[in-house]
Design goal:
- The protein is 46% helix and 17% strand.
- The protein folds into two domains: 172 residues, D-Maltodextrin-Binding Protein, domain 2 (3-Layer(aba) Sandwich), CATH 3.40.190.10; 153 residues, Periplasmic binding protein-like II (D-Maltodextrin-Binding Protein, domain 2), CATH 3.40.190.10.
- The chain contains 15 helices and eleven strands.
- It is of the alpha/beta class and 358 residues long.
- An eight-stranded mixed β-sheet has the order 2-1-3-11-4-8-6-7, with helices on both faces. Strands 5-9-10 form a three-stranded mixed β-sheet.
- The N terminus is likely disordered.
- A hairpin with a 5-residue loop joins β9 and β10.
């Protein structure tokens, strides 16, 4: 009984904490959007507000930091609150852009008058915490599916040792950590698993809100990185730059050509090239499990979600300035920060599309 009571208290505490986090994000968004009202300082300054995925959060923070130096008359703020929520906000007319890793549905495009434009390329990597294991582990899509379905339960299970015969794997239980509903990394990760595992495709499918059968949630990408880093035996998934900058071990993943590939700007761009070339105009294409020996298989665009038309010429002009900067100086800064920028031929077409918005 004591154990049950303790568990109940913990669940209530976690739920309360989750609600507090959501409330805080909403208050932040309301405050930032309030800056856009034509009062006092805002009469002279247009504050462009974006909201959405935490996957590219560090990049948007860097972009805001640099972009806001160039012109005091146009400023940019970004609020990380999840891909699904970012789409909802821009569709409702809140803010100036959304950001995330889920493809818009036909209904979202039509009802919200929305389009998506690629911002940069990202890779989702499996991260793990296994003290004493110094080799980079190999994962197939099928193995990752079995782990996240709860079928492979220990680190020395035959399915893992078969792919990693040189690693001295412990008999630790696997602690699965996943992202909660509405997250872009869920969409990319579950799409890859659905393409590589018929069992996962049938039981879970592709979604920003999968019904994960095992594990515990981590609210933001940074929370995922922190949890895996602190929990021995844990496994999760996160954008590659979170793993690199937090020095968290992350595995190689088997691609469609059967090769185990590490995420890097080069292998992520190889996935994009395999899908987009030669036309370079599939702005909403899926890049996961792309063909080619060098393609990292859990690759995606992170998109900007934009309204196709605007009723406010001043804000539209400010947004056009921001988009032009994102697709010029912003791409250079992304590359300097470790992200894979858009390939030149795709970038040229994205810029042309962005310039046609009004």
């Amino acid at each position: 009984m004591k154990t049950k009571a303790k568990f109940s208290t913990q669940v209530v505490s976690e739920r309360s904490s989750g609600r507090s986090g959501v409330l805080l994000v909403w208050l932040m968004l309301i405050l930032v959007i309030g800056l856009c009202r034509p009062l006092g300082f805002a009469q002279e300054t247009v504050v462009l507000v974006g909201s959405g995925s935490s996957v590219p959060g560090p990049l948007y923070n860097k972009w805001a930091q640099e972009y806001n130096k160039r012109n005091p008359g146009i400023q940019m703020k970004y609020v990380p609150m999840g891909t699904s929520e970012g789409i909802k906000q821009i569709a409702r007319g809140s803010g100036d852009f959304g950001a995330g890793e889920a493809q818009l549905t036909a209904a979202e495009r039509k009802e919200g008058d929305l389009i998506e434009l690629p911002a940069v390329l990202i890779g989702i990597v499996p991260i793990y915490n296994l003290p004493g294991v110094h080799t980079e582990l190999r994962f197939s899509g099928e193995l990752l599916a079995e782990i996240f379905l709860g079928e492979v339960k220990t680190w020395n299970a035959p399915q893992i040792t078969k792919l990693n015969p040189e690693a001295s794997l412990p008999s630790l239980p696997i602690k699965v950590i996943y992202r909660p509903a509405g997250k872009g990394s869920n969409y990319v990760f579950s799409e890859f698993l659905s393409k590589t595992s018929s069992k996962f495709r049938t039981q879970i499918g592709t979604s920003p809100s999968p019904s994960w059968p095992v594990g515990v949630p981590a609210e933001r990408s940074s929370d995922m990185a922190d949890k895996v880093k602190s929990e021995t035996g844990s496994i999760g998934y996160v954008e590659a730059q979170y793993a690199v900058k937090a020095n968290i071990p992350h595995g190689m993943v088997q691609n469609a050509a059967g090769k185990y590939v590490e995420a890097s700007p080069e292998t992520i761009k190889a996935a994009c090239h395999a899908v987009e070339a030669p036309a370079w105009d599939k702005f909403s294409a899926s890049l996961s499990n792309a063909p080619g020996p060098d393609a990292f298989p859990i690759t995606s665009f992170t998109w900007l979600y934009l309204r196709a038309t605007s009723s406010d010429p001043r804000r539209a002009a400010a947004l056009a300035d921001l988009l032009n900067w994102m697709f010029t100086d912003g791409q250079r800064l992304a590359a300097e920060d470790g992200y894979a920028e858009l390939p030149p031929r795709l970038l040229a077409k994205v810029k042309t599309k962005a310039s046609s918005l009004h």
